[in-house]
TrEMBL record:
Species: Streptosporangium vulgare
Classification of source organism: Bacteria, Bacillati, Actinomycetota, Actinomycetes, Streptosporangiales
Family: Belongs to the group II decarboxylase family.
Protein name: Glutamate decarboxylase
Cofactor: pyridoxal 5'-phosphate
Catalytic activity: L-glutamate + H(+) = 4-aminobutanoate + CO2
Length: 476
């Protein structure tokens, strides 16, 4: 049975009425059923095009981390490769070669000890990449437990409650107990102490997030690793780390070169990133890399024929587009290290300047200021009772700005914030226009005499900050 759209009540089920400009076609077209006959391509295009005008402007969407601008040459390459299936290694050998080169480049970027021994692949995005990293952790743990003659039926994964929703899906789909570390006070993500407290002999790994979706902050990977080293010294428990670098793994190498979060940290077994976020590619492509072949159990790897040889593959999806992989390689060639550093530096400069100007208005308090990933969150200052962050979000939307407002998860549900994601293409000029509109709406909001909107009015406008399921498992 097909899934229904959430909240769909049947409104808008009336057939589409075609304006007389399309008089060469029938004047009515069914909305939820396939038409009986054909129509002119231009007519079909115009129908779809006109409905899509109701979508928000992607360039003004400050909720999404996903790339919304690309160079014409990258788009041209994607159009030239749109029909290529990434899984067909033998039919499209050069596309497969470009994927391998991208993996090698990322291995060097993330300081793999021997980049040629690091293993990895492209995916449809960070969610798939994260799940592959989690599966490898689970399988390695299970092999070790069975070799020791111990039960391997109660795996758990330790992570902050701020992780992206894909990790809840991983735990649910693959029967792993999710141990979410709640936020506490001004600590909005996982800390070394809280990570270690949740680990036991059934822990398959710890997920450390480099660029929290809630506020853009980095989790202290090196500190978590050091705490796990001490745990192993005390107890013998050897718990690996997977770094969810969906955003930050394409920021930190260029802007924070002295920050140890990657394969320079021996306990980091795997890393994922999103090529279609700060990798600067249109959606959807992600990447996952393991430190070396030993970090990826061979029984998870499938082998396909590739130019008469063997090509190992590990992915949840089979058929998927090759165009985004080609665009990723184009970006790596086109920008190089210095070009990526310039782009990411500009994003961070815009984010920190905009955060500072918003704080300077006097009505808001910063939670983060964009100095890690180019993302910042801010709340309405205490004592201001005329409006909420949800009022601000709705008022900005009137001008086309999509700025999400949401509450933080358990233990800090009292904290409601707005979040701004600065991506390539969101310039200082656009930031100035956002500030002008924010200044313009504030007097009206202050004059309304009290909040008009609450979290219930935000709908699904959360972009990765959804509350995790209340279902919990006890520590076994």
């Amino acid at each position: 049975m097909p899934l229904r759209r959430p909240g769909h009540t049947g409104r808008g089920s009336r057939d589409l009425e075609i304006n007389p400009v399309f008089s060469r076609e029938p004047l009515r077209v069914p909305r939820h059923a396939m038409p009986d006959g054909e129509m002119e391509p231009d007519t079909a295009y115009q129908l779809v095009h006109d409905e899509l005008m109701l979508d928000g402007n992607a360039r003004l969407n400050l909720a999404t981390f996903v790339t919304t601008w690309a160079e014409p040459q990258a788009l041209r390459l994607m159009a030239e490769c749109v029909e290529k299936n990434m899984i067909d290694k033998d039919e499209y050998p050069q596309t497969a070669e470009l994927e391998t080169r991208c993996v090698d480049m990322l291995a060097r970027l993330w300081h793999a000890e021997d980049p040629h021994r690091a293993t990895g692949c492209s995916t449809t995005g960070s969610s798939e990449a994260a799940m592959l990293g989690g599966l490898a952790l689970k399988r390695r743990w299970r092999h070790r437990r069975r070799e020791e003659g111990r039960p391997a039926d109660r795996p758990n994964l330790v992570m902050g409650v701020n992780v992206q929703i894909c990790w809840e899906k991983f735990a649910d789909y693959f029967d792993v107990e999710p141990r979410y570390v709640p936020m506490e006070g001004d600590r909005y993500h996982l800390s070394p102490e809280t990570a270690v407290e949740s680990c036991d002999e059934n822990t398959i790994g710890v997920v450390a997030v480099l660029g929290s979706t809630f506020d853009g902050s980095y989790e202290p990977v090196a500190g978590i690793a050091a705490a796990l080293d001490e745990l192993q010294t005390r107890t013998g428990l050897d718990v690996p780390i997977h770094v969810d670098g969906a955003s930050g793994a394409m920021i930190a190498p260029f802007l924070d070169p002295d920050l140890h979060w990657d394969f320079r940290v021996p306990r980091v077994a795997s890393i994922n990133t999103s090529g279609h976020k700060y990798g600067l590619v249109m959606p959807g492509v992600g990447w996952v890399l393991w430190r070396d072949a030993s970090a990826l159990p061979d029984d998870l790897v499938f082998h396909v024929n590739y130019l008469g040889g063997d090509m190992p593959t590990f992915a949840l999806n089979f058929s998927r587009p090759g165009a985004q992989v080609v665009a990723q390689y184009y970006n790596f060639l086109r920008l190089g290290f210095d070009g990526y550093r310039r782009v990411q530096r500009t994003c961070r400069d815009v984010a920190t300047r905009l955060a500072g100007e918003i704080a300077g208005l006097g009505r808001f308090e910063l939670i983060t200021d964009g100095h890690e990933t180019p993302v910042f969150a801010f709340r309405v200052r205490e004592g201001i009772d005329d409006f909420t962050v949800f009022d601000v979000s709705a008022a900005l939307r009137e001008r086309g700005w999509l700025v999400p407002a949401y509450t933080f998860p358990e233990n800090r549900t009292d904290l409601a914030v707005l979040r701004v994601v600065v991506r390539n293409g969101f310039s200082h000029d656009l930031a100035d226009l956002l500030m002008e509109d924010l200044r313009r709406v504030l007097p009206r909001l202050e004059a309304q005499g009290g909040p008009r909107r609450t979290a219930d009015d935000a709908g699904g406008f959360a972009h990765g900050t959804e509350s995790k399921s209340p279902r919990r498992h006890g520590h076994g």
